[in-house]
Predict the structure.
Amino acid sequence: MARKLDKQKALAMRQKGMSYSQIKEKLGISKSTLSGWLYNMPLSAERIRELQADSPIRIEKYRNTMRTKREARLDEVYNKVSKDIGSISKKDLFLAGLFLYWGEGTKAQKGSVNLTNTNPAMLKFFIKWLELFDVKRKNLKVKLHLYSDMNIKKSVAFWSKELKIPISQFRKSYIKKTQLKSITYKNGFGKGTCCVMFDNRDLWEYIIMSLKYISQISDKNFRP
């Protein structure tokens, strides 16, 4: 009796356009049994195309194929870039840091060389750049901008480990009253925003004047 009921269910499902795999998943009936029950109920070519388009396995294979192609393409681009750029000299690092500071660094706060970002790699580069001016990590200060629903201790520990700066050099974090979960665009904000600071009037003035010089010569050299 149960077998007859399963067959009736399988027939009804097939009439709705379900595949053997879908029916098997619902009823636990082997495909060989379903083949015997449903041999005279083939699906239309259009329905087969629809099932193939919705197949999780097919979609996953497609994603893997596209990911492999994308990774291979990016590897080629990376190889080309590595040849085009080659090694980076001390002067290259100096100029790159100036342009980074021009875009992301604090200019208005006189006497304080600060850079704020959510990307640890960018702040690591900034710290490396400061070493060109004989700035030691032990003289740096760090301040985090976090949301009220974030784990403050974990965020501080994360940035301390990433930047290799002891927690004792961290100033009290600024906690925003809004919550991270209420922010629609979360990319980059998982560990908050980090500001690396070095208070030094002479260095700040040197950087600002360097940016002024670059601005003037670029305007002169690249004027149409």
